[in-house]
Amino acid sequence: MTETSEPASPFSLPLFRSVWIASLASNFGGLIQSVGASWTMTGMGASAEMIALVQSSISLPIVLLSVWAGAVADNLDRRKVMLCAQGFMLLTSLALAAAAYAGILTPWTLLMFTFLIGCGTAVNGPAWQASVGDMVPRPMLPEAVALNSMGFNIARSVGPAIGGAIVAAFGASIAFLTNAITYTGLIFVLGRWKPNLPPRTLPRERIGLAMLAGVRYVRLSPSIRNVLVRSIVFCVPAAAVPAMMPLVARDLIGGGPLTFGLLLGGFGIGAVCGALSSRHLRRTLSTEQIVRMASAALAVGATATGLLGYLIPTLIALAVAGAGWVLALSTFNVEVQMASPRWVVARALALAQMAAFGGLATGSWLFGVIADQQGVTVSLCIAGGVSLICIAVGFVSPLPTVEDLDLAPFEGWSEPDTAIPVEPRSGPIVITIEHRVPEANIPLFLIAMNERKRIRGRDGASAWTLMRDLGDPQLWVERYHVATWLDYIRHNKRRTNADQANSAELRRLRVEGYEPVVHRRLERQTSSIPTTRGPDPRELDAMTDPTRST
């Protein structure tokens, strides 16, 4: 996707517009199914804890499968991944509708079906979120994410009321069947999409190694790690609002499924307003200020929902909570996408999704237990108080600004020639890089090398060390390991333009005019040398390449 002629809005891109409309229809179906599942569980006379577990059963698969799903999305065709996930959810929804129609649903079988739909959502999520960056230019990404959130919440504002009416008039089985039908539009649009992606120059990673690489990247990326922590802190209390809504409708307001749908609609209308205001807020406020505002809105909305007890005031309170909900979650999503290069973006989003839904699953269960023991009002008031913790965390560890990061791959490195033939699987490989640093620059050099250590580890290197030569005070040697020659190539290909600031700082601190000397060594065991001949000296010598591309 080129950025030479940027459209004014993501909606002016036919692909994004088609996918958005199809997703909107699918979101309608998902909300109708959610109303059907929650009210069916309520109609079975289940406890507050079991009712809250409907939300948890959808969230738990995302916690369990997100890292795997992210690795799959980064290694395979994301469009095909989404098609498989959508097809699975279509079949599962049809089975759920058939079971409801036959009258064989129990609380536990209902949870099983919602869990399976959650599995499809878990697989679809990282591929879908990462694909947004394939549909629109990077500068338009925040608006595209906000529009996707708006689409979901347009469905939230109307879909639950429709779902409540369908359940009241025709029963839950028709609600589940409606959800199944809405998957077909998105499947059709995705089937016609032919993404224009850059050619893959390296073999795919094995899924297990890809999962570890994603976890390592996020663990060693402070900006992403901070977003994940804030997401968990926000989502635990935020989960109380949708989880308690059936009980608010039944116990605090004294309504039925239609009332439940109206409450979800009020929450959705607020979320739409929050999404529409997102673009303006991003221009006038920092990311941290937006999240603090969202947390305050959620606190006020959750507390008021628990205390008011009348339909119209409760709808207003839920709209406030919905605006805070979408502002925070869409902001977290944008921050992770902006802080992740394309090779790992699905895995980073998967971990962010896992953090968010882990918080939602925990919060749904926790506040369901509190509601069982202390009542719905107490549960929602406690959730409102806990949501203020997210604001307090922001004063200690504020969210960074990442929109201006240039995470395009650095093009200044190419695979070096070697005197000894190597295969992609050859290894382990040991790299040493010699630096010469004047005495006066050593303190700043050590600071820069600490950042270099983080970058090396983040991109796949292990056993990184820095050594100083005892006989030559200016000589410093950086050393690290990679498992194979292919891993060495991957390690260097993962470097981004943003990382060049660290390389430039190291160049500035070295002795003027000095070029670092790179030694690439193939580690060998002495037992691997045949006893019928002496060792080849070339296999025991270092491969030396005095180049600046390190």
Quick description:
With 550 residues, the protein is mainly alpha-helical. The protein is 68% helix and 6% strand.
SSE map:
Layout: H1 14-43, H2 48-75, H3 78-102, H4 107-135, H5 141-170, H6 172-192, H7 207-219, H8 222-238, H9 240-252, H10 257-284, H11 287-308, H12 311-338, H13 345-374, H14 376-396, E1 429-436, H15 442-458, E2 462-468, E3 475-482, H16 485-493, H17 500-509, E4 517-522, H18 537-540, E5 543-545
Antiparallel strand pairs: 1-3, 1-4, 2-3, 4-5
Low-confidence stretches: 1-7, 537-549
Supply the number of structural domains: 2
Give me the side-by-side strand order of the main sheet: 2-3-1-4-5
Q: Averaging pLDDT over every residue, what do you get?
A: 84
CATH class of the largest domain: Mainly Alpha
The CATH superfamily name of the largest domain is MFS general substrate transporter like domains
| Helical segment count | 18
> How many beta strands in the DSSP annotation?
5
Question: How large, in whole angstroms, is the Cα Rg?
Answer: 27 Å
CATH domain fold name of the largest domain: Growth Hormone, Chain: A
Shape: elongated
Assign the structural class, choosing from mainly alpha, mainly beta, alpha/beta, alpha+beta, or little secondary structure. mainly alpha
Helix content: 55-70%
- What is the CATH architecture assignment of the largest domain? Up-down Bundle
What is the ordering of alpha helices and beta strands? HHHHHHHHHHHHHHEHEEHHEHE
Question: What share of the residues does DSSP label as strand, in percent?
Answer: 5-15%
Distance between the termini: 30 Å
